Amino acid sequence: MKKICVIGLGYIGLPTASVFARAGYEVLGVDVNQKVVDSLNEGKVTIEEVNLPELVKEVVAKGNLKASVSPEKADVFIIAVPTPIHEDHRANVDYVEEATKSILPYLEKGNIVIVESTIPPRTMDDLVAPILKEGGFDPYNDIYVAHCPERVLPGRILIELIENTRIVGGLTPEAAKKAGDVYRAVITGDVVETEAVTAEMSKLMENTFRDVNIALANELAKISARLGVNAHDVIKLANKHPRVNIHLPGPGVGGHCLAVDPYFIVEKAPEESPLIAESRRINNSMPDFVVEQVKRLTAELDHPVVAVAGLTYKGNIDDIRESPAMEIAHMLLDNKRYDVRITDPHVSEDQVHFNLQSFSDAISGANVLVVLVDHDEFKQIDQQELIEKMATPVVFDTRNCTGIDNPGITLYRIGDLKKLTAIQQG
Predict the structure, then answer these.
(1) Can 401 be counted among the known catalytic residues?
(2) More confident of the two residues 328 and 423
(3) d(CA 264, CA 95)
């Protein structure tokens, strides 16, 4: 293995390309976005990820990593393009299809083709393999074809790419072995070989398990709001049982994995997956629940000022894909009753196409601060500043992250709304 071609230079493809380049391989990164290609060739990145800018600068300077809008001949082709969902929640595998077709002119017998993109079950057998066959290659004999789903956490990608166990599912056992050896050359974690469809399902079930658990916590938060119970106390006590591990409630589920992957299973087996589908519905309902609480908190005000803190789907990253915080922000902005000020230190206005303010400006004169993301900046809020600048120092913490304990601030949490329930019932 001498040269690796990585198709897609997003949150997974670029770190993957960089890790192989750091290990000494000649790596070509391919992306349809000329801006991404030009930035990479200058040693710069267009996404936020811990230590990635320094690594990219290093491997580009060494000549181990370059970028292009077109593939080239290589020993290994890694496809790491997005797989979004259509409005009806069916998987959009157009990018995987296009990426697979794009490498056909450069493929040779004996090459290794790996799809890292998260895909519905049987995509390798029913989509990728036929494309390769139509291109003149026997995907079971001429080339080694495998699925190796990414399993990393934004903010820790460069660490987890190396340390995490990799699941490699081949169209044949030989393909699994060959693809597995690609990763064994650069990672310290285990490499487990299996069939392609099993690898596809394993990735989907990892995220579906978490989505279902979060849905349980979010349903508990709704029940607790109705009954005047502190869900956080309930979870803390329930989790003292040695075989119970309930997650924490929040404003919804976002990102390209948890908010998307369960639909890939439902699409293929709808009658057999009612629990998975209902969990998706519950988690998708949380932005409405959050907005309803904002309405309750500001019911006595004619034109309340609402400060929104955070737009990404999780803390300390710039990724807004499928973010419930983005949905909540748009819902509040669409309601002309509110004067909405939005702040996020990790997001640029180019990403969201509406005005962003500094935290200090956002809270000035605000009636309620809604914390939607657990950025470190919001975990360390200056509580005295809230008291001095907000018109009414009320905080709705949907991430249970602020640690506010100043008696001059009224704090509500998404799982602890009993004070609000008591006021309205009284």
Answers:
(1) no
(2) 328
(3) 15
3-state secondary structure of 369: strand
In a domain, 232, yes or no: no
CB atoms within 10 A of CB 289: 19
Q: In what order do the strands lie in the sheet with 394-397?
A: 339-343, 305-309, 368-371, 394-397, 410-413
Pairing, β 112-115 against β 76-79: parallel
Question: Which residue in 178, 257, 314, 401 is the catalytic one?
Answer: 257
Q: Which residue has the tokens 């087996």?
A: 269
Q: How many domains does the chain have?
A: 2
387-421 pLDDT, tens digit per residue, is: 999 999 999 999 999 999 999 999 999 999 977 76
Average per-residue pLDDT for the chain? 96
CATH number, domain containing residue 359: 3.40.50.720
Q: Catalytic residue at 203?
A: yes
The pTM for the full model equals: 0.92
> Do 313 and 186 belong to one domain?
no
Do residues 173 and 46 share a domain?
yes
Of the candidates 5, 148, 178, 203, the residue annotated as catalytic is 203
d(CA 203, CA 232): 29
Which are the contacts of 209, defined by CB distance < 8 A and separation ≥ 6? Answer: none
pLDDT at 421: 66
Burial 86-118 (b: 16+ CB within 10 A, else e): eeeeebebebbeebbebbeeebeeebbbbbbbb
The answer to whether the Cα torsion of 292, 298, 300, 303 is positive or negative is: negative
CA-CA distance, 256 to 118, in Å (whole number)? 9
> What's the confidence (pLDDT) of residue 419?
76
